[in-house]
Request: fold
Amino acid sequence: MAKATKNNSFRIYPWVFIPLVALVYYTTFYMMSMMSDADYGFDWIAVLIFTIQFGVIWWLSQFTLDRLLIRGWKMNIPFFLLGVTAIVLLNECIYFTFRSIYVTIKYPEFPLFNWFLLTITTLEGLLKGIMIMSLLFSLHFFKRWRLENEENERLKRNELELQNRALKSQLNPHFLFNNLNTLSGLIRQDPVIANEFLKEMSDMYRYILKTTESEVVPLMEEIQFAESYTRLLKKRFGKNFNYSTEVNDFNYVLPPISLHLLLENVIKHNRIDEECPLYLTIKQKEDSLVVENTISRKNNVDSTKKGLQILREQYSFLTNKSIEINEKNNLFSVKLPLLKITR
Reply:
């Protein structure tokens, strides 16, 4: 709808532009006292005649230009000069036709034709020709630039969408791989919790399937998804796993499964036992969400190292804001920008 409105604007411009040019054109001649008609005062009928003259020349020039371009003519200097010449001839015809009518009726004392008048109108036609052809060429190049720009934007958007889909296709195997590793460990440690984890996994996959086609999800859903996962981790690690969530404003969105990727990352890279209890917080800071945990790194980690990479690329697809990763005072934190839906 917006595109159609923009295209129509090109059709409206001449209706404003042509009378304005005619008024300025006549006023300039009038003020310079170059026209004998000036002795009779400012003549609005003459302005109307100039408007019609400009309008006819403009529409015929534009019509002819469009048709010749469709037939394969190139916009170059010979084409420009040919257009100027045609406008000079057309201007002469229109001017002397109107003059023969108007002067005969209103100013019969003026001659209909003389060589000086022909010279003046030829130079005037040359000026109009250069002006109109320059404007038509400029408008054509501008329209073509805008269409090419829109096409480039569309192609760029399609490319980004394809990249985002490719990222999501990597996300599901990554999620499955990490959770199967966790499930494998739970089966050996506690079959009851392993069974609960498996059930929770099915719920998580239901959420993932639900959000597969979504670029973003509400913050509320993502927090609920993360809390479901942290409750499961609490069952697994008991008092050695401590977490808190502090989110007050849920009027944001973020890429789906962002928090789960970060939680997986925390569990995968850190020891969680009596010697090294883990403290995890999910805290909102204005328009960001910070996931912070204490550091107790494992010695050997089987990692694909794709979690944070996928998250970075998802954000680069959606916004110019990027995630921030910090490590300070034995704390590791990831700051996720929260996004607003713009309509």
